[in-house]
């Protein structure tokens, strides 16, 4: 990796509707993995809003499988580090982000 010319891919998405309409998860992941493959970045940052959907108490169980699929994908196997920051305390309505 050339540290002077680090190829970076920054992605941000509001994914709430993916969890509200579960059939949209696979196509979204497929497009994400295709973008990673096409761009071949040295560094990737993915920022997602509304993980778990608008009805997060109902949809949060789908989050673990989504994260697992993301982290075990062929597209990310080329990277030696990954970090996920996730607010799971959805019952704390005053601080849940």
Automatic annotation (TrEMBL):
SUPFAM superfamilies: DNase I-like
Protein name: Endo/exonuclease/phosphatase domain-containing protein
InterPro entries: Endo/exonu/phosph_ase_sf, INPP5A
Keyword Chloroplast assigned: no
UniProt entry keywords in alphabetical sequence: Hydrolase
Signal peptide: none
GO MF, one example: inositol-polyphosphate 5-phosphatase activity
The species this protein was found in: Macrostomum lignano
């Amino acid at each position: 990796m050339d540290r002077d010319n680090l190829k970076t891919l920054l992605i941000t998405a509001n994914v709430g509707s993916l969890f509200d309409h579960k059939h949209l998860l696979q196509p979204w992941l497929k497009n994400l993995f295709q973008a990673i493959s096409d761009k071949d970045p040295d560094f990737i940052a993915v920022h997602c809003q509304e993980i778990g959907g608008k009805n997060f108490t109902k949809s949060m169980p789908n989050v673990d499988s989504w994260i697992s699929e993301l982290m075990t994908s062929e597209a990310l196997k080329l990277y030696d580090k990954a970090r996920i920051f996730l607010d799971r305390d959805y019952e704390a309505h005053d601080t849940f982000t």
